[in-house]
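Possible regression after last week's pipeline update?

I re-ran a chain I had predicted before the update to compare outputs. Posting the input and the new output here so someone can diff against the archived version. Not blocking, just want to make sure nothing changed silently.
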Amino acid sequence: MRRWLWRIAKLGGLLALVAGIGAFAYVHALDLGSQPRADARSTVADLDFMRGATSPPRGRILAVVTSTSHFPGGEKKAGFELTELARAYYVFRASGYDVDIASPQGGSPPMRRDDEDMVATDFAFLNDADAQKRLERSLPLREVDPARYVAVYFVGGKGTMFDFPGNTDIQRLVREVYRTGGVIGAVCHGPAALLDVTLEDGSPLLRGRRVAGFSNDEELFLMKDARVRFPYLLQDRLVQRGARYVEGPMYLDNTVIDGRIITGQNPWSTWSTAEAMVRALGHEPAMRTPGRDEQAVKVLAAYRRDGIDAARRVRHAHPDADKHLLLMHALVAGMGGRLDEAGHLLALALG
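New output (post-update):
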């Protein structure tokens, strides 16, 4: 995600933005090298929250990913998002749940990764032989027995927009897990799985439910021709299915809890969606130190909600907040002509 926002910012004229807000000196003062990217050699042993992991069995959670590798026509890649699987996977494991991975077709599903967005947890997943075995041998949905699972989590990724809606195996799985008191979770494009689910009495699962999912603004900012490339936009379709869509600021954490249905708006909602699912199952998630990216999101959320003074206080409390992410949001604001906001966010990135 960050890679695409950087590209858009550059295409929009980074030099014009810097000149327009008089902030070129800030860029040099940011010292971005003081916040190196996560180590690609990270393992599960490096994850602090996994060291005291609760031993199973509290139950099993099924994570479902897309099998669709490309958009229709084959030229544009789709797939599932690694970060949205890896982070939830370890939240569940650390909190005492075993995790199986399934996909509509089974086997090795198409993965999308962006090294610029990845944290130690994501690299740990790639270096975890057991996790990779489960992914490469994902269960075909038609063979999944819903009675084995206390929760189902639908991972996002653009491929879900094509093979999640209308999938009768997904509908069967969600209906049965929900009927027996289980928890249903989904993040980013993952809520596409819920669009056509009906309950035992024939009523739509989403009718009257408060939900989140990748917003129209987020989709169209990244992909100007999204209305042409996709058969629908997720926010629009959720509303058409009777859901009460709850929109948060673009690219910030927004997780919505409606009973045993828990949905997150975008990739930055992955941690909170998974942790909310654990709470809905009756347990507190494993204690975890928020990463630099999460700290930056807290700063940005404070700015959106309460303004620059509140954001400065949060920034002071989180000196390690990810400068790259703060700078990215400053660039996006500048591209949108919100120059005061861009200046504020650059100042927050500077610290």
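Follow-up from reviewer: compared with the archived run. The two ends are 24 Å apart (CA to CA). Marking as no regression found.
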